[in-house]
């Protein structure tokens, strides 16, 4: 009887396996004990837009059968594109404030889930503000008293942002950090470049050319101050949204101004201070806010002859225009890097509705920017509270975070689309990975990116935007496996060569 029973079990296992592979899922945890995670040749993460699978870890085995599948995506490592820097979100003042409101235990748990390369998603690139942003706790610069000798970090940095960054760095020491200013000190601003009258407002204005040198020193002092606090700055942009005059903290900086400031002041001071920090130009929308004289902003600066040692490339947001602009820039300047640095969800785009947002954000932001040449993808606030804050007058009152934390307990977390789209990339695509080509199966409802990691693994991130599941085979030329991709889902795969 025992032999018959064992034989039946074997038949059951075989029946559950497809002809080419066997999918493995995490078992139900009915006893309150931690379930044993599935093991197999391929590590898989699955998120469906109805949350039936919520970044669920699964596994599959390579097939020993010949691959005859008509829905095969075959990797082509010989076709190589950009090298990836990483993926993440912004650690704004509001984000840091919310994180510090959590208990130490809960904060550590969340940060490990988000940033740990071994125990979590492995997010690896964050953006912070140089001085205030529209999601800071107040309006301020790092030198509010006239005279660059009065530069100094504020309590927002020392009490909130830096402690959070240190905790993240303890979890992921290889974290990359980008800095962007929303505004210079008010005493450096003028109403326009003709009248050159003082402009005592955080909103709008232009940088007084007389202070280009001091403002470059401001950047250097900030990078050095952060470094003294154990925070290495990987990159900066000269100005967040330089064509946006209306943000609560903002500065208009046309391309000619940015060229002059960066080429003749910021770059020389970076070199004089022996800084390795990269500079990315522009940091604004695909459509250049429909300003004809600013169209192609970073390309105009490239054409003018900007430094190529320190100025790495350009950064983009998606609040206007189309991601196809990235390919246009890349085709003209293939040697220059592209990074995507900001996008938001909020009440205007049903930002907390995963059924709406997961598919669109994966298509337009995550895979869309990567497949158009971006080597990094960063979304806006990592964490806001359930009242969309802390926010302040003039800033966004309708934004959601990549996650939202319940203001009543600072414990309960709702994970939104931006958290998943970044996590699906960062969990399998590691810094230094090279995006590679693919051939084979093609369908408008399916979008994917493939990568070769430095540790000898392949990674694929795939979106199924259709209402039906489909069996997809992945083939690296030596091994192949098949997985039933659920409807309206995002799948991340990683396996050894």
Set out the fold topology:
Elements: H1 2-16, E1 23-25, E2 42-48, E3 56-60, E4 72-83, E5 86-90, H2 93-101, H3 104-115, E6 125-129, H4 155-171, E7 176-180, E8 189-190, E9 206-207, H5 212-228, E10 235-236, H6 255-272, E11 278-285, H7 297-303, E12 311-317, H8 324-332, E13 337-342, E14 345-346, H9 354-370, E15 374-381, E16 383-385, E17 399-400, E18 403-405, E19 413-415, H10 417-426, E20 434-440, E21 446-452, E22 457-464, E23 470-475, E24 480-485, E25 489-496
Parallel strand pairs: 4-23, 5-15, 6-7, 7-10, 10-11, 11-12, 12-13, 13-15, 16-18
Antiparallel strand pairs: 1-3, 2-3, 2-25, 4-20, 8-9, 14-17, 18-19, 20-21, 21-22, 22-25, 23-24
Helix pairs in contact: 2-4, 5-6, 6-7, 9-10
Question: Care to describe what's here?
Answer:
The protein is of the alpha/beta class. The protein folds into 2 domains: 17-28 and 35-81 and 435-496, Golgi alpha-mannosidase II (Immunoglobulin-like, Sandwich); 85-428, Glycosidases (TIM Barrel, Alpha-Beta Barrel), CATH 3.20.20.80. 26% of the residues lie in helices and 27% in strands. The protein is built from 10 helices and 25 strands. The chain has helices at residues 2-16, 93-101, 104-115, 155-171, 212-228, 255-272, 297-303, 324-332, 354-370, 417-426; strands at 23-25, 42-48, 56-60, 72-83, 86-90, 125-129, 176-180, 189-190, 206-207, 235-236, 278-285, 311-317, 337-342, 345-346, 374-381, 383-385, 399-400, 403-405, 413-415, 434-440, 446-452, 457-464, 470-475, 480-485, 489-496. The strands form 5 sheets. A 10-stranded mixed β-sheet has the order 1-3-2-25-22-21-20-4-23-24, with helices on one face. Strands 5-15-13-12-11-10-7-6 form an 8-stranded parallel β-sheet. It is globular and about 75 Å long. The two termini are 43 Å apart. Mean pLDDT is 93; it is low at 1-33.
């Amino acid at each position: 009887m025992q032999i018959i029973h064992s034989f039946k079990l074997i038949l059951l296992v075989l029946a559950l396996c497809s002809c080419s592979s066997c999918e493995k899922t995490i078992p139900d945890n009915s006893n309150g004990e931690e379930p044993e995670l599935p093991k197999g040749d391929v590590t898989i993460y699955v998120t469906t837009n109805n949350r039936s699978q919520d970044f669920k870890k699964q596994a599959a085995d390579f097939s020993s059968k010949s691959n005859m599948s008509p829905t095969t995506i075959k990797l082509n490592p010989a076709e190589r594109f950009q090298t990836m820097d990483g993926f993440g979100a912004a650690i704004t003042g509001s984000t840091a404030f919310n994180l510090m409101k959590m208990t130490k235990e809960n904060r550590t748990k969340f940060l490990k889930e988000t940033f740990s390369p071994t125990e979590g998603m492995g997010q690896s690139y964050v953006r912070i503000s140089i001085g205030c942003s529209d999601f800071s706790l107040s309006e301020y610069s790092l030198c509010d008293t006239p005279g660059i000798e009065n530069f100094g970090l504020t309590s927002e940095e020392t009490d909130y942002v830096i402690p959070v960054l240190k905790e993240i760095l303890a979890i992921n020491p290889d974290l990359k950090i980008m800095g962007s200013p929303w505004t210079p000190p008010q005493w450096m601003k003028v109403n326009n470049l003709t009248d050159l009258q003082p402009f005592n407002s955080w909103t709008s204005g232009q940088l007084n050319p007389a202070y280009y040198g001091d403002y470059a020193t401001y950047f250097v002092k900030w990078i050095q101050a952060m470094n003294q606090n154990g925070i290495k700055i990987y990159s900066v942009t000269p100005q967040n949204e330089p064509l946006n005059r209306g943000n609560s903290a903002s500065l208009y900086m046309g391309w000619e101004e940015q060229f002059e400031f960066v080429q003749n002041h910021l770059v020389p001071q970076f070199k004089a201070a022996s800084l390795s920090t990269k500079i990315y130009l522009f940091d604004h929308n695909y459509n250049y806010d429909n300003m004809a004289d600013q169209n192609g902003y970073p390309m105009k600066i490239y054409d003018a002859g900007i430094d190529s040692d320190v100025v790495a490339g350009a950064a983009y947001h998606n609040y206007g225009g189309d991601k196809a602009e990235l390919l246009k820039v890349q085709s003209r300047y293939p040697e220059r890097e592209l990074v995507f640095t900001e996008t938001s969800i909020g009440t205007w785009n049903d930002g907390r509705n995963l059924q709406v947002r997961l598919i669109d954000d994966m298509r337009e932001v995550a895979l869309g920017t990567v497949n158009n040449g971006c080597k990094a993808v960063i979304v806006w606030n990592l964490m806001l509270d359930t009242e969309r804050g802390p926010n302040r007058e003039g800033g966004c009152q309708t934004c959601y975070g990549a996650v939202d934390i319940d203001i009543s307990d600072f414990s309960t977390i709702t994970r939104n689309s931006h958290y998943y789209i970044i996590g699906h990339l960062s969990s399998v695509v590691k810094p230094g990975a090279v995006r590679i080509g693919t051939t084979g199966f093609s369908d408008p409802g399916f979008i994917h990116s493939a990568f070769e990691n430095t540790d000898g693994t392949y990674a694929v991130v795939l979106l199924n935007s259709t209402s039906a599941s489909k069996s997809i085979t992945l083939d690296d030329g030596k091994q192949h496996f098949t997985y039933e991709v659920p409807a309206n889902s995002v799948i991340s795969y990683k396996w050894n060569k």
